[in-house]
Amino acid sequence: MSNIALGRYIPLDSLIHKLDPRMKIIAMFFLLIAVFVPAGYPGYGVLGVFIVSVLLIAKLRLNFIFRAMKPMAFMLVFLLMINVLVLRTGYVLFSFYGFTVYSDAIYQTLYITFRLALMIMITTALTATTKPLDLTLAIEDLLGPLKRFGVPAHEIAMMISIALRFIPTLIEETQRIMKAQASRGVDLKEGKFKEKIMAILSLIVPLFVSSFQRAEDLADAMEARGYVPSATRTRYKQLKRTLKDYIMLFIVLLLLGGLITLAFVV
Amino acid sequence: MPIAFEKVSYTYAPGTPFSYAALKEVDLAIEMGKITAIIGPTGSGKSTLVQHLNALLQPSDGQVLVLDRIITHADKPKQLKSLRKNVGLVFQFPEYQLFEETVLKDVMFGPLNFGVSEEEAKKRAMETLTVVGIDPSIAEKSPLDLSGGQKRRIAIAGILAIDPKVLVLDEPTAGLDPQGSKSMMQLFTQLNRQYEKTVLIVTHDMEHVLNYCDNVVVMQDGKCVTHQTVKEFFNDGKLLHELNIKVPNVLRFKESLAKGGMSLPEGISDLQTLAKAIAGRIKP
Ligand SMILES: Nc1ncnc2c1ncn2[C@@H]1O[C@H](COP(=O)(O)OP(=O)(O)OP(=O)(O)O)[C@@H](O)[C@H]1O
Ligand SMILES: [Mg+2]
User: Fold this and answer.
1) How far is CA A169 from CA A129, A162, A226, B130, in A?
2) Which residue of A11, A177, A187 is in closest CB contact with B97?
3) Nearest-CA distance from A59 to chain B in Å?
4) Cβ B277 vs Cβ B254: under 8 Å
5) How far is the CA of B228 from the centre of ligand 1 (A)?
6) Which of A217, B217, B263, B271 has the maximal Cβ count within 10 Å?
7) Could you tell me the pLDDT band of residue A3, with boundaries at 50, 70 and 90?
8) Contacts of B159 in chain A (CB under 8 A)
9) Residue B110's pLDDT is what?
10) What ipTM was reported for this prediction?
11) Which residue ranges form the domains of chain B, and what is each CATH number?
């Protein structure tokens, strides 16, 4: 469970790691828009090369990226099956047992695969290179202007950062309770259906209890130290934009513009 | 049917930037039918060590022998239940594992999992609850509504009810009141003397080691630095000093007396015998 790659921060020292998180989030949005620009395979090729080079500059190993994409493999198999069953356009590729597979089914599946892979790589490029706390700081800043319309920017950011903070704790806790129950004869892998339900209950109930307990303790501790969400506060860590950030954003916009031209003008 | 560690190493999260070698080539043989204390500073690998005893952790290298089973890195141990039935492990802070609606049901959970009949499980649960000092009147309460100390006792009862041959306890008395922790330690001694159970206790309390244990294992930085009888251990002043271990008060008092010229017979380890010995010296 501790080797989940999707969304995990990898502490390395690279140009991408040092960029301003706000600018990275904005760039990520533009890149995600770029994925949906219908520029065909050439467009995806360009985008793909761009993202892979960003990941390489960030010193991430490609093996890590593949691990991040693993969870979607199941979905893709499912998608392929549906496409093969439903899509009956294009030319016939082959048939077996009276079953015909059309080219569009494969083509369409590949298309979606590319899109998904690109989206995962783009988000990974952000989450793997930005500390979760920096991300929430950036989200708070970016949501700042919306405060006027009643959007609780600080509260949202606080909630996200607390949630992020407790993910490893929860994983640890789960492993500990699993071990403790295993010592009492719980077997999550073997056993009858009823035993399995019991096994899952013996894991979930203590996990819930301790989570609520922890949430309450945290709330008390925060209140005891005088935490008021709406209070104006200064920050220990100041986010700074530098020339590099603007250059990065400029390159991304250039890429987006190029893809739009490719799709609609050419 | 011994318990032995042979060059056992264990690494958490191997192959990642967070990897940590918690055990380093530990060689250790535990004497059956005795009470063995496992001591050592925080983070020295005590909890990691004891989790190998019922195969919750498998060694990264080397092998663990427990009751005619061999646990190594390579094999996917099957029928772990039979091992876990014989080696009961009480975790550090076991109160977080309670989940059933009532105290009684929670204590019955373990025995039922190991194939004990409903009736027998109930009988054992009532017995062990009494043994750990829980009033039967709260057997029908929710375990979540009890105090921390009560929860701890119930969790320990949950393992005792399984009736394992080997009982492993990871800091069972941490956070209990002095009286409670004393009666808990007496309970473990009784289980050892009366039912010949092999007991391993991870503890930070030297008084407990001196008063209740036969052997002592000292862990330091993932290695087993000494393993000897408690008597020898507390007589080895140089070693105690090297390991920076706080000597129990009774022994320190005896030592001061010896320095002042009153040498008492060896082997006195509890307050009462010491008092008697002193009284015997003064009166005549
Ligand atoms: N799940 C884990 N993942 C990574 N490292 C761990 C994990 N559990 C323990 N460790 C590390 O292994 C080392 C030994 O831990 P262990 O829990 O065995 O210590 P201990 O001797 O029981 O300490 P204490 O007296 O505080 O209970 C510690 O440095 C700890 O940081
Ligand atoms: Mg421990």
Assistant:
1) 21, 11, 25, 35
2) A177
3) 14
4) no
5) 24
6) B217
7) low
8) 183-184
9) 92
10) 0.85
11) 3-247 (3.40.50.300), 248-284 (no CATH)
